[in-house]
DNA processing protein (Cryobacterium roopkundense), 311 residues
Amino acid sequence: MNALTITRHLTTATAALASQNLSPDAIARAVWTTIGEPGDTQAGALINAVGAADALTLLCQGDGNAAGLDLTNLRGRVLPRVADSGIVTAVHAAEKVDAVLITSEHPHWPTGFADLGSSAPHALWARGNTALLVAPKSIAVVGARAATGYGEHVCMDIVGGLVGRGHTIVSGAAYGIDGMAHRAALASDGQTVAFLAGGVDRFYPTGHDALLTRIVTDGVVASEMPCGSAPTKWRFLMRNRLIAAGSNATLVVEAGWRSGSLNVAGHAKALGRPLGAVPGPVTSPTSAGCHRLIKEYGARIITDTADAAEL
């Protein structure tokens, strides 16, 4: 492996993304999205130290250390992907669905991502109204996939009220509370953002194809993964940090004791974002996670739109 491989990929990416008039750093970040995994702090630290383009070059050099960092493990993870980089396929797939690349140079880059430090995404691929990624009033609304009628009803009421107050609703497009949050926002003629764990050209879950298609039209769908990428368990967990960092506050409407939405809440708390949870019946296992957030995470009790807006 040598710098010629990287040069070839950068040249290919530059030609493929020419219509977007991107800087060399942004082009390099597009390549990084195809060869790395979300939340890789070693890659993030290297990019922060020398820039995305130089980081790619240093990656291909044989020295064990570069920029004061030990790159042995990073090279082992990333170099095999560089050799088989899918940058051409990813960029062409993005062109087919009108996905745009957004980096920290772009006016629609969420400033909250800076709080993620070296685990911040290299870039976002997005479809729709990308200005919503920097909406001044945004709140993440997440919860159980196996939502109850109670949870969906509360979610619909609170989201409808938040939209009426000018809030943009951020979520992950999963079944249950996530899907209801998006639907309630759209039904109220509001704005919504969906962060995916896979490429924005491969809607997941497939049962939300129609919902995500509408979000592309009336909102925005974004991912740090390139087009063509499939979601994985790790990517779902890492996607959750984008939901938390890309919004001003997080509300968990309904969640089981081990619900994935608690992972979003954990990121929100770690980032110092306001966190709220809707209480439910003490006999309901789908509200056990919310009660846990209130008792162990210091989440505020949210019972209506006014409570949520105060977050």
